[in-house]
Amino acid sequence: MGKVHQCGEIRCHRIIPFDQRYCDVHAKLHAHDAYRNVSHKQRLESYKTYNREHRDQAANAFYHSKEWQRVRDYVTSRDVYTSGVSGITLTDHDLIVDHVVPRRLCEDPLGTDNMWCLSRREHLAKTKMEKHIAAKPNGDNVLKHLNRQKWAVYIDRQLAREKHRGGR
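Structure (tokenized):
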């Protein structure tokens, strides 16, 4: 028999192979921890690969343009690095300037009246909801008419549901 040890979860005494950190039961609970162990250099390389191979090339060109960078800088200054949902001051690393009405549906993709600051977590929740809404009949029309206040309520509720599910 090879080397073994106990599961890394507190009060779990299951014996597992040495090359695993958690037993099968607790590995699922700690799956998100794997991302934290990735170096900054590896994350940057992953982003580059995503941009090159998976992201819509028109979107990629837009988000790397000088015009977008200027608008992004203006919006972060205007909003004082504050989340439009939680009101928390964000670090530059956690801040995403987001289009309230998705870029593909808005009249002016550089119009600052349609932009706000979100945390990465809030942006991910909003993006998931946008995809869900867009897939429904008349979904794009619904997305065109959602404002900041509605989005803030929806995002806040979604994050609360995720927190509740994660706490079980």
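The chain has a mean pLDDT of 88. Strands lie at 4-6, 15-17, 95-99, 115-119.
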